[in-house]
Amino acid sequence: MPETVFARIIRGEIPCHRVYEDDRVLAFLDVNPLSRGHVLVIPKEPAETLDALSDESAAAIGRVLPRICRAVLRATGAKAFNVLQNNGPDAHQAVMHVHFHVIPRFPGESAGGLGVVWRPHPLDKTDGAALAAAIAAELAD
Question: pTM (2 decimals)?
């Protein structure tokens, strides 16, 4: 795994505004936030994408992510938020270390650089059945 800014933050080589830390997870304010209270939640395990993360680190993030979201909402007064997680350059991942963005959203606030265009397509029933079976088979292995 390549050296990343997050690895340096975990080691304490780069300062950050920590909001949460345990033996597997670190959460801190984003230095280039999309809104006030934008927090990054990262595993301490060096994994580039979510599929490369161990079950133990994934579970640790899963345990604390809702708590961090609640804390961000209470601290900022926001009533809405986005949780964003990208995997790989084609999915707009800029730092090659698993990370979750918790982005508070406020009434009347512009997207602040966050743009989501959702263009759904109807699921073909035959392809859907085959794809669901293939994914289920991979999960069974």
Answer: 0.89
